[in-house]
Design brief:
Helices cover 28% and strands 29% of the residues. The chain has helices spanning 18-29, 60-68, 82-89, 98-104, 107-116, 130-140, 167-173, 229-245, 279-282, 287-295, 322-327, and strands at residues 10-14, 33-38, 51-54, 72-75, 124-127, 144-148, 158-161, 179-183, 189-197, 203-205, 209-214, 217-223, 250-259, 262-269, 308-315, 331-335, 346-354. It is globular and about 60 Å long. The N and C termini lie far apart (42 Å). Belongs to the PurK/PurT family.
């Protein structure tokens, strides 16, 4: 490709968490440099990136200086302020593009986008007040879940409604934020597809992984997922449809519910994804290198899986198990370099090769 980033070029990464850290490691393997922009001090990505800018997303001078130092900009999380993107896009290309961010930053916008593509989701409704919630519950029924339209993750910004009597408290939990009501879905399992698309329209997908959540946080992803051949194909084609509709460049995670009626889209994440960490030890080209290849305009790599893998997140005090994990056979440890151990905080993950 004529505009493939050369050796020594710099990729700017918005966000300095563990995903930015692993993106930086992948870029270094390809001879590329990374510069991280992160408001918080001493971010995990800062331990391995070539440069770090510590500044607020409201500091437009810092953003401009950051952009001037890089060749292309990507991101490790989707809730980047629009005003910051306005500054950056005038100076350097942003990959994936802003349309993917616009869609994914708002759950209502995302659900509407997916259904407009002809894809199936859980039933949903826009909630603005108590009356709209009552009307939506009449149609969708209970149990249901009320979510903030923006900024929720890992179970945050959500309230379960098991019956109409829970509605008032759930709405109060939203603290006045715009919300969306989603009906519960009967599903046999949740899977996710990690998919990549390059600027020339090429698409490469990893095998779907089967996810298990506890308390709203992903605990394990196992490949292969328990899917039929048709379900596996449908999952990959569905992810590719989303990528193409967005003219996407980079890696995306697409979470799906497996139901008797077919696959339902739970959500999409326009970035490398927790449920794709298994690729680090199950594929020659992992999700992080695949993303770097895409945003640097390199050819996409072969995402074929050569091993069965179970990824387990290390959450909070799980880090106390490190000595025993280090003794386990066929287990690769990936730690994020976070100093403070907190309940619910992702401190690292392990990938176990499944044999036999």
């Amino acid at each position: 490709m004529s505009d493939q980033l050369p050796q020594g070029a710099t990729i700017g990464i918005l966000g300095g968490g563990q995903l930015g850290r692993m993106l930086s490691v992948a870029a270094s393997r390809l001879g590329l440099r990374t510069h991280v922009f992160e408001p918080g001090a001493n971010p995990p990505a800062g331990h391995v990136a070539d440069a770090v800018t510590t500044a607020s997303y409201e500091d437009h001078d810092a953003l401009a200086e950051f952009a001037a130092s890089v060749d292309v900009i990507t991101y490790e999380f989707e809730n980047i302020p629009t005003a910051a993107l306005d500054v950056l896009q005038e100076l350097r290309p942003i990959r994936p593009g802003r349309e993917a961010l616009r869609v994914s930053q708002d759950r209502l916008t995302e659900k509407t986008f997916l259904t407009d593509l002809g894809l199936r989701t859980a039933p949903f409704a826009d909630i603005t007040d108590a009356d709209s919630l009552a009307a939506a519950l009449e149609v969708i029924g209970t149990p249901a879940i009320l979510k903030t339209r923006r900024f929720g993750y890992d179970g945050k910004g959500q309230a379960r409604i098991l019956g109409p009597e829970d509605a008032a408290k759930a709405l109060e939990d939203m603290r006045g934020a715009p919300a969306i009501l989603e009906g519960f879905v009967e599903f046999s399992c949740e899977v996710s597809v990690i998919a990549a698309r390059s600027a020339d329209g090429s698409v490469a997908c990893f095998d779907p992984g089967e996810n298990i959540h506890r308390e709203g946080i992903l605990r394990t992803t196992t490949v292969p997922a328990r899917l039929s051949g048709k379900q596996r194909t449908d999952a990959v084609l569905l992810a590719a449809q989303i990528l193409n509709a967005l003219n996407y460049v980079g890696v995306m995670g697409v979470e799906l519910f497996v139901t008797p009626q077919g696959l339902l889209v739970n959500e999409m994440a326009p970035r490398v994804h927790n449920s794709g960490h298994w690729t680090q030890n199950g594929c020659t080209i992992d999700q992080f290198e695949q993303h770097i290849r895409a945003v640097a305009n390199w050819p996409l790599g072969d995402g074929s899986r050569y091993a069965d893998v179970q990824m387990e997140n290390l959450i909070g005090d799980d880090l106390d198990r490190l000595p025993e994990l280090a003794r386990e056979a066929d287990t690769a440890i990936h730690l994020y370099g976070k100093g403070a151990v907190k309940a619910g905080r992702k401190m690292g993950h392990v990938n176990r090769i499944i044999r036999g």
